[in-house]
């Protein structure tokens, strides 16, 4: 009995270790199917877009700081006939950066959708060729529903869901990195607290990702019986009224609703916990360092406001990054299942015409 219990514990620990790991092989298969040209285009367009977005915010902060400083200096001099602040250079730079950001957003969206379309076409074509050339023993041992599910649900996930999740994941990740970079640039003392904060975030997201993925699956699994029961009740409403089973079906509907609400409540609470916990730490450290730099190093008010604004948004970016990472893990399962069928050995047709 002791040996059996230890074996069960080892199996459980190995399962939990596998759940905590990212499916890097499926991710590599998806990215390799995108091609040599599309992948650098996707990465470069994302980097340029977020660089321009940070430049827009920085330009606006400098514009505000210079205008306030000029106005304050004129008030101290009591100079009513002096020339006003020249907004023309800043407005031109701001307009150019905004137009460039719009163009880069369009290029990024096209690159993401083009990547998803190319990957889907390549995987679907390879899978179709493998299934057509598969031996008869493959069809005798593999259920037909499993094969159809690879061509329908999994291909739909790769076609529609993975590109959108990939775009959201890259956007939230780069926004989080750019926010931390701006805070570190405005207040270099933030770098001292960034290392322990990053280590803490790594271990928190490692365990949160597994819980978030399981809660998302629980939410989906409890939503399906609710929708099925509702549709069946609407379709058989005449029969239910004839047998006077309204109370029974109403009670069943309430039970399914409660189960789905409990799963949704725990998922929402977990997401809010991550956002508030990490965000409060980042905002506290950024606020303390910004106020200290403003008092002792004469930091401009515009840059302080820029740093605090990005600090307030880090929690939201980090929350979406972890949630999109959990969604990506679930959706990459479709690539993993299709990749498993692609390893099927073809029938030997030598000697046949």
Automatic annotation (TrEMBL):
CDD domains: ABC_6TM_SUR1_D2_like. Residues 41-329 form the ABC transmembrane type-1 domain. Gene3D superfamilies: ABC transporter type 1, transmembrane domain. InterPro entries: ABC1_TM_dom, ABC1_TM_sf, ABC_transporter_C-like. GO terms for cellular component: membrane. One of its GO terms (molecular function) is ABC-type transporter activity. It comes from the Eukaryota. It holds the Pfam family ABC_membrane. Keywords: ATP-binding, Membrane, Nucleotide-binding, Transmembrane, Transmembrane helix, Transport. The chain crosses the membrane at residues 30-48, 93-112, 179-205, 277-296, 303-322. PROSITE patterns: ABC_TM1F (PS50929). PANTHER family: ATP-BINDING CASSETTE SUB-FAMILY C, ATP-BINDING CASSETTE SUB-FAMILY C MEMBER 8. This is ABCC8 protein. It comes from Hemiprocne comata. The lineage of its organism: Eukaryota, Metazoa, Chordata, Craniata, Vertebrata.
């Amino acid at each position: 009995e002791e040996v059996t219990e230890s074996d069960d514990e080892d199996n459980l620990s190995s399962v939990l270790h596998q759940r905590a790991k990212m499916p890097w092989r499926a991710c590599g298969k998806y990215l390799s199917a995108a091609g040599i040209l599309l992948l650098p285009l996707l990465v470069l367009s994302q980097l340029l877009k977020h660089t321009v977005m940070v430049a827009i915010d920085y330009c606006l902060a400098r514009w505000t700081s210079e205008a306030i400083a000029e106005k304050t200096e004129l008030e101290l001099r009591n100079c009513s006939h002096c020339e006003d602040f020249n907004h023309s250079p800043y407005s031109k730079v701001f307009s150019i950066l905004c137009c460039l950001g719009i163009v880069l957003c369009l290029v990024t969206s096209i690159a993401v959708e083009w990547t998803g379309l190319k990957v889907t076409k390549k995987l679907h074509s390879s899978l179709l060729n493998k299934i057509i050339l598969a031996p008869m023993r493959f069809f005798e041992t593999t259920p037909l529903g499993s094969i159809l599910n690879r061509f329908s649900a999994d291909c739909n996930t790769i076609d529609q869901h993975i590109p959108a999740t990939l775009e959201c994941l890259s956007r939230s990740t780069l926004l989080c990195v750019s926010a931390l970079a701006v805070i570190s640039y405005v207040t270099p003392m933030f770098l001292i607290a960034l290392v322990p904060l990053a280590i803490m975030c790594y271990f928190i997201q490692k365990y949160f990702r597994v819980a978030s993925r399981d809660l998302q699956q629980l939410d989906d699994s409890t939503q399906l019986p609710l929708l099925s029961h509702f549709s069946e009740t609407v379709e058989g409403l005449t029969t239910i009224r004839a047998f006077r089973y309204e109370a029974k079906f109403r009670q069943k509907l309430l039970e399914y609703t409660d189960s789905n609400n409990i799963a949704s409540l725990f998922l929402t609470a977990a997401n809010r916990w991550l956002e508030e916990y990490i965000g409060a730490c980042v905002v506290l450290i950024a606020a303390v360092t910004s106020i200290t730099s403003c008092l002792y190093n004469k930091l401009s008010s515009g840059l302080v406001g820029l740093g605090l604004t990005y600090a307030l948004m880090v929690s939201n970016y980090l929350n979406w990054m972890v949630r999109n990472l959990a969604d990506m893990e679930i959706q990459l399962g479709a690539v993993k299942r299709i990749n498993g069928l692609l390893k099927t050995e073809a029938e030997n047709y030598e000697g046949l015409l």
